[in-house]
Amino acid sequence: MFKVITNKDGQTQEIQTSLSAHELMDNPLLNKGTAFSKEERDAFDLHGKLPIQVESLSSQLMRVYRQFQEKNDNIQKNIFLNTLHDSNTTLFYKFCSQHIDEVLPIVYTPTVGDAVEQYSSEFRRPAGIYLAYDEQKQMDMILGNIAKKQQIDFIIVTDGEAVLGIGDWGIGGMDISIGKLMVYIICAGINPANVLPVQLDVGTNNQKLLDDPMYLGARHPRITGKKYDQFIEKFVMSVKKHFPNVYLHWEDFGRDHARAILETYRDQLCTFNDDMQGTGIVATANVISAIRATQTKFTDHKVVMFGAGTAGCGIMDQILDAFIASGMTRKQALDRFYIIDRFGLVVDDMPDLPDFQKPYAKSRKELKNWNINNQENISLLEVVQNAKATILIGCSTVKGAFNKPIVTTMAQNIERPIIMPLSNPNSHCEATPEDLINWTNAKAIIAAGSPFEPVVYQGKTYQISQGNNAFIFPGLGLGAIAVKATKMSDGMIRVASETLASFSPLHQSVNNPVLPPIHDATIVSKAVAIAVAKQAIKEGLSSIKAKEADVEKLVNNAQWIPDYYPLKKQ
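^ NAD-dependent malic enzyme, sequence as received from the core. Prediction below:
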């Protein structure tokens, strides 16, 4: 389709293609719209198919921004940007890179949640590939055909079962894969020509979708059990066969599947689950930054997780590793961790505990001196009071769960409580930053799961950090791709967390936000990529011969810059 010509340093010089005029304008990777030069219009017979004026990329960007601002609401802005993405990749990503603060909440959380719900009704054109359980015999052929035509370095896959905080939206999960890829490209410069969003369609248990005549996915309940596991295995084996060096990102899989899939395949190829690992890396970086900024020790802290599902326990796993790295034994660290699900504090005599909850389950002996009303359902407030919790994290999607008595108790337990209501979108958040600041006299160190407006308290304005995985997963992916990593190791994850922590504004003042502003995500992503790539080389997980001294150049060469390059007839 096209060939990229580079110089000795790997920088793009020109692009050669044999596409015809309409094929060229219909190809979003090559389309320039009104910016095709006179020479390109001559070479590709574009005269008469475009207005006579030849515009610069800068002129196009001005028009796009005006059109963007004219949209009435965020969902209309999301549709506008996705339409631009589908027609002109370069213009879209150049625009996004210049307006990260405004764009990320539109192409990803929180607006993407609304887009997912409206996926079938707002469907415009297919994007990525849809692999249905009912057509699994064709899976290998589909992936094989793509491998023949396109270099794929990166795959993001979802089955749409646990989308953000809004649940099972079936084939609408494709918008999550696409939105996540956009963030990878905006923040880290992953090459859009080498990525593949995938929707695994195994049905849906959302009756609203099954009853909707416009729903585009498979109209049956979700496939489960052995059949589901075999389908996932078939997908992974086909990916390994056709894309042996790929980076595989799992997105928004359900509680019963996410951890099992990651543990099954993490040693077979370079794979990553953002819900289990990415959120945990950011939360861990926040904890490390806050502990350092408040000049406390890890031993001064007790951690409570409200929402003990796959995501919540994945976060706890990452924070636990940081506590152990501080010098504690595993048992000493676990003694400071508490998880709460819908049945209250998780205790080891509860029936049918998932394996991922068992390390954190408390014994009745540990609780014998606690003041508790109901032994069968120990509440969040009782845990915060009795455990003397200092760090409180929410992954429950229960709006308002962190109420005033709980938060004021946290403020009594320690001068600077660390509180992270991470559920998104905002309508599912455990507490608002405004309430947290008011209830703790602005002492709480806060990170939220979605963007919130600054809070004014006693004449001072407090910026609220979004515990945004966009600070982490783009750099992880770029670092892994740059050295063709064979695995995403715990060591690579650890250095990513430490790198993000080093950027915290808390180091300048404890009243600053925990995380840097989102427009710094490109800087952070590159630093994370370099650290991750170096760690991969150090652990012998790079499939190319490289030294740590080569890493920055490798990362630079792996990045794509959104710009128009000269097009030549092939």
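The chain has 22 helices and 17 strands.
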